[in-house]
Amino acid sequence: MAIYNDVMETIEMLEREHLDIRTTTMGISLLDCFEEDGKKTAQLIYDKVTKLAKNLVSTADAVGNEYGIEIVNKRISVTPIALACASNTEDWVLYAKALDRAAKEVGVDLIGGFSALVQKGMTKTDESFIEAVPYALTETERMCSSINLGSSKAGINLEAVKRMGPLVKKTAYLSREDKSFRPTFPEKTSPLAAPNSWLLQMLWRTIRLWREHFTESVNRRTSST
Questions:
Q1: 127, CA 20 to 30 Å: which among 21, 77, 159, 223?
Q2: For 88, which DSSP code?
Q3: Are 39 and 94 in contact (CB under 8 A)?
Q4: Domains and CATH numbers, the chain
């Protein structure tokens, strides 16, 4: 009875509450990609992301189809790019474009990691990175950027906070021709649009669970006699 209740509860979540997995994220370290030459670094970033994440979308879709539960977003998260130690805006934007191209190539919805960790203070590199963020965001589609301004342990970097207002305004100004400032997601077909598919999968899983439960009960009774 417990198994039956679990199965029926799962079916109800899928059918009525539209249960899904919000995202699956692949983490990639880029520490071995950072070189003195900006163009070489950008190419190494692109090559590594496309190599390691080439099967991310297909694997996530296969898992979702197997269990009949949609995985809404596929994402990549990389090492904070501010660690690359670029010295000018052009190189930062070059890295951003490399990330964006890689995201499009492998088909993910978002790629994050165009980021800086400044809760303990800012270096000249961090300051250069922050100045480049508005330009990088306006020239990419699927790349996300973040700046960590504080933590419970280190406190809040108020100098960095002070810089955020002008940065947000500049980003808004540079993207003023856009209808909205957000990544462009590829079209997806929800498994709920083809209910026969996931209903058959759930039915098969239900039958398999009941068969396993029945076999286990028979084996217990046989061994007890």
A1: 77
A2: S
A3: yes
A4: 20-188 (3.20.70.20)
Q: What is the DSSP letter of 178?
A: S
Long-range contacts of 161-170 (CB under 8 A, 24+ apart): 163/130, 167/130, 167/133, 167/134, 170/134
Closest C-alpha to 50, from 84, 83, 94, 99: 99
Residues whose CB is less than 8 angstroms from the CB of residue 119 and which lie 6 or more positions away in sequence, other chains included: 148, 149, 150, 151, 154, 155, 156, 157, 160
In angstroms and rounded to an integer, the radius of gyration of the C-alpha atoms of the chain is 24
Separation in Å, CA 116 to CA 113, 119, 127, 193: 8, 9, 9, 40
Please return the burial class of 155, using the count of CB atoms within 10 Å of its CB with bins 0-12, 13-18 and 19+.
Answer: exposed
From 12-26, 82-96, 187-201, the region with the lowest mean pLDDT: 187-201
Task: Provide the pLDDT confidence category of residue 213 given band limits of 50, 70 and 90.
Answer: low
